[in-house]
Structures are given as C-alpha cells and as structure tokens.
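Practice problem: predict the structure.
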Amino acid sequence: MGMSYDPKAKTGGIPPGDYPFKVLQSMEQTYGTGNNGLTLVMEVYAPARSFEVTERLVYVPKALFKMEQLAKCLGFDYDNPPDPRVLVGAKGVATFRKDRENRFLEVDGFIANPNARLEISKSTPVSEVAEEEVPF
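Answer:
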C-alpha cells in the first residue's frame, strides 16, 4: 500500500512578493569567506502562514546597497549604524523572490518606509556593563 498523500494537491508554496517581517535575531558575524556582515533572522508574515528567513548582509562595497535599503526600511541612520542588537523587534516590509534552485524565498530587497523610526534605547546593553559595575 502506498503513502496516503494526494500528488495532485501539490502547490508551488508561498509565491514571491512583498511581505511584512519582524527581526527575531540580529548579529554581526565573520563568514566563511572572511568577510564580515550582519545576519538577520526574520519572521515573515505571508497571507497563508508565517515562516523564518535568514538574511546575510555582507559588508563589502558592492553589497552595501542592501544595508542602505535595510536602514531606510527600519528607520535607522545608514551613516551612523546602531548596535545590531537594537534591530531585534523592528518591523518592515521586504520583497521576496525564489532562490536560484526555486526552493524557498529569500530577500530581493527591503522596501523604504519614510515614516519608520527605529527606537534606540539610551541605556547601555547588559553585555557592555563592566563586571566590577555589577552589584553582586
């Protein structure tokens, strides 16, 4: 007896398009190529369901246009970049396309939002507090 799925029920998955997202994780990393960059894990909200996408923004001159798009999308100053941790929780909209093998969606570009203003806390992140400043 064969498996019980219906081969005719197959769909093409979530189509490419513009979808809202929320940043779940944001960290700077050095990639296997030796280049530094920003890794974002985003929750993407498509009409049928939400899913996670990991986007890697490499800090090389020819790829910095995407970082500038992200700044305009989330509302931070491209010329004065914030600590990457403040991006967690930020929301925006991006255009998603199918990857080269047509398997999953990836970011094609971030959509500018002239009203976006990233809220940057004036307090010092916990990881930057000197050990001798902790009162216990």
